[in-house]
Fold this protein.
Amino acid sequence: MDAEGLTPRLAFEDLTVHVNGLLVLDRINFEVGSACLLGVLGPNGSGKSTLFNTIASLIRPTSGRVLINGRAPEEERGQVAYMTQYERINTRIPMSAWDVVMQGRVREIGWFRWPGRSDREIVRRALETVEMSPFSNAQITEMSGGQRKRVFIARALAQGASILLLDEPFSGVDIPSQSALLGVLLRLRDDGHTILMSSHDIIQMFEICDDYLPLNCEPEALERINLSRQQFQPPYPVGT
Amino acid sequence: MDAIIEGLWGPFQYSFMRRALVVSLLVGVMCPVLGVYVVTRGLGFVGDALAHSVLPGMVAAFMLGLSPFAGTIPVAVGVALLIGYLVKRVGVGEDTSVGITFAGLFALGLVMLTAARGLPVNLEDILLGQVLGVSQTDLYITLSLAGVVLALVFVVRKELLFANFDPTGALVMGLPTNLLEYTLLVLLAVVTVISLQAVGIVLVVSMLITPAATALLLVRNFYRALLLGVALGVAAAFSGLYLSFYFNLPSGPVMALLTTFFFVTALAWKQGVTQFASAGRRRESSS
């Protein structure tokens, strides 16, 4: 919610989305406030990526709407950052962690200027927040999966985004790196960010998320999830 | 000393050599500037296709007694936009789109060239370039186009790089990624046409790709690669022109050979450095 507690950070109102003529999201109604880690759960093909693409304005809803701070996503573009999966990155381009995070400033810098002192300071702080300052000159292609993800989160911070969309953030990340990544996400959540994480691995999300949005999950499966959640112990220490 | 100065400046007592030098240097600058974007985006053969595709426009311009630019620029820009449209809207693969336009238009150009007898140009000059034949008007057009291209690349440099690196991230941030993609293709079309004068249809890729690829091999920062690419492009253009003058060789192929020489040298140097470093690591671990 905003300062007055009236407008949710992110809201779906009867959100219905078709992709290539197929109904993927069917009348979703949901609200998320600030300082929230929301798990978007569902099996493969349940519409998790479609939901993220709709929030990010990459897909138009068939009916219903997404509201960001009470406004259309197109009006709040800078507020949303999508952590792209590494497979979609063009690895032919030499790019250090610093270069990647500086991309978060592109809109603010504008067409004609070079990055200024304030931009460099923002990038430095973003790298510090995700504990990647020692790797600022390292090439993105030479980093581990967890380090790369932290760099892309730093880019979102440099952009000033308040909503982070993380598609399968823990896939391809080893257990110690998962712990470090999770520590960063929890700190960002505590700083007021709204973080949406998708995963098909429902068990993994239990101790992480504040709230859940199940997509196309069978009612029996949800019941099992709630039951399992009470018995679940995380396999690694949460936070760093 | 006088002999050295005479040797250096001697070729430029001729106005055609001065014009050739300016055009060659502009090509040496512009090709790598765009080349680093083209190489990292995997568009190298789009440049090759554009170079071949402009042949009908070039022949038509000669038939009408116009500057070659009057025919090549519209055709190149049209083909660039067509390739972009086929890939983005129709879903035809990039290599397929390139193959279709490249083969079809080049064949049309060859038929036109054969049918229209008595044109003031021969196929060899078109294929290999003839920078010594650049007219004063062509020089002014080249200077103007180069100014526009370099200014535009400067304006969109960051956005183009972002869209090239992470198209989804750039789109989510609100960058006009489609417009940037078409801008890159149009810039590529214009630079290709300008470069035809110096290195011709067949060798234009050598100036577009090789200096940029050499630079990307040696440095790990995109903008430094751009600057190093420009240095290599200028060196190849300048040295190529000199060598062609003194040894009576065609300038386009000499420039292309020099860019290839730079690449092979850089590759050998890099391999040597890598092997030396790994041998050092082995020695450290065994001691």
Q: What stands out?
A: The longest helix of chain B spans residues 177-218.
